[in-house]
Amino acid sequence: MLTELKPFLRLDRLPHIWCPGCGNGLVMAGIIRAIKRAGLNQDEVVIVSGIGCSARASGYLDFNTVHTTHGRALTFATGIKLAKPHLSVFVLMGDGDALAIGGNHFIHAARRNLDLNVIIFNNQIYGMTGGQASPMTPATSKATTAPYGQLEQPFDTVELAKGAGATFVARSTAYHTQLTAKFIAEGIKHKGFAVTEVITQCPVAFGKRNGMGNPADMLKWQKERALNIDVAKNLGVKPEGKFLIGILHQEERPELGELIASQKARWQKGDN
């Protein structure tokens, strides 16, 4: 497996600084496999990250990379894509980075439908800064800012992305590494704003505090709780305590970059 990934890694930056048992490396491997599967030119791929545990991936990936500010990865990515439309731009964010401080940028990027590939590493906690509750921390779960249990309901990333206007939305887990690569690759092929949420484990800041066992136990939890959308369709109902994985929404809608290019061409011809 390492041989497959090595050409896409900055080996001089390894070993990584993620905690033992963190799922972020599995998600990063899925991103590499998706890019490889899509046959993208390594020099025409841009990886943009914000701040947080997941954001460290941009330092390990051997593409054009930008490590930006907290919650602002999508603004940098938007500028890059509009300036250089031929580039394949990937935006890596954690659940807090994407949906808390970056939430406003997320919903407006989705409605614009610019051709960006967004991967949200959802570990359900602020792992890097001390284990505070994030917008994805499940109700009743404990965090440093919710020592007696989280009272607020979490976002549903899929429903939020759909409601804001994203034209491709998928969900996978760190356990389902091959599916993660498959869904991200399908998002790459899609022309428009593509979001893939990956449920990943944080054994240190979330798992330990919530009695979820060791990293292997947390991966087993993902395996047992995830329900493929195709299986759910056959069942006709989603069993209690399960969450859906798969390509959960896809539609065709004009992409912002193409609309801008078309408008510019009309303006240059004097066709108002």
Q: Quick one: overall form?
A: globular
Q: In angstroms, what is the radius of gyration?
A: 18 Å
N/C terminus separation: 55 Å
Q: Total number of β-strand segments?
A: 8
> Which series of helices and strands comes N to C?
HHEHEHEHHEHEHEHHEHEH
Give the biggest beta sheet. Answer: 8 strands, mixed
Structural class: alpha/beta
Mean pLDDT: 94
Q: In percent, how helical is the residue content?
A: 25-40%
Number of helical stretches of at least 4 residues = 12
Query: What are the segments in which pLDDT stays under 50 over at least 5 consecutive residues?
Result: none
| Biggest sheet, spatial arrangement of strands | 2-1-3-4-6-5-8-7
Strand content: 15-25%
Short synopsis of the structure:
This protein is an alpha/beta fold and 272 residues long. It is built from twelve helices and eight strands.
